[in-house]
């Protein structure tokens, strides 16, 4: 049985948060439980920084190094930027593999920037304050949420109502033929979905903005959500096909 979040209010929202992360790898956080987890959860949004002062970050697996959030207004048909931040860590405990992660070699995010960024604990507090009680989704929920933000050290499951994965609706819309048994269509990349939905126009105003930045991708995904919704192709509380659901 998959826990999709808090469902105390089933009324359809007018506004949805769209989140994106940039990370040091694709496997996700290694830990779902940790001795610090109970203290973290009991502390709610006020997690003392010293809790993580002596953290060996290498034991956590892949880490989130940047977070971006946008808000889609389904009534006003607008997308606005909400939040963007690099996530800072003490990198002295990082492995060589983490220090040479793909993101540092192929984007505008540098290892030094992450080392000097606002600490993880501060960014987490910001996120908790913004997302608590809201409706939220991503382009690939399994990646951003299941592999990272639902795991230690973020543990954000239950703070918000999870909405339909934008990628799933984009899959139904783009209809890219799949070669995998049992899968009719393959998942389109965010770039392909954005191009397919908008046919070459650029409502997000991305232009020549550098790739692999969380806010840029969150903005593109938010516009894809809005475009699909306007076409009747995005159902907020449709969880059919969600990763991991029986």
Mean pLDDT: 88
**What percent of the residues sit in helical stretches (DSSP H or I)?**
25-40%
Q: CATH topology, which one?
A: Nucleotidyltransferase, domain 5
CATH second-level architecture: 2-Layer Sandwich
CATH homologous superfamily label: Ribonuclease H-like superfamily/Ribonuclease H
Report the CATH C-level class: Alpha Beta
By DSSP (H or I, 4+ residues per run), the number of helices equals 9
Quick structural summary:
This protein has 246 residues and is of the alpha/beta class. The chain has 9 helices and 7 strands, in the order βαββααααβαβαββαα. Mean pLDDT is 88; it is low at 4-9.
Provide keyphrases for this structure.
246 residues, alpha/beta, Nucleotidyltransferase, domain 5, 5-stranded mixed sheet, two-stranded antiparallel ribbon
Give your account of this protein's structure.
With 246 residues, the chain is α/β, with parallel strands linked by helices. It has one domain (15-230): Ribonuclease H-like superfamily/Ribonuclease H (Nucleotidyltransferase, domain 5), CATH 3.30.420. The protein has nine helices and seven strands. It has a five-stranded mixed beta sheet, sandwiched between helices. The chain has a two-stranded antiparallel ribbon with strand order 6-7. Helix 6 (141-149) links the parallel strand 4 (135-138) and strand 5. Helix 7 (166-174) packs across helix 8, helix 7 (166-174) packs across helix 9 and helix 8 packs across helix 9. The protein starts with 14 loop residues before the first strand and ends in a 16-residue tail after the last helix. The model is unreliable at 4-9 (pLDDT under 50).
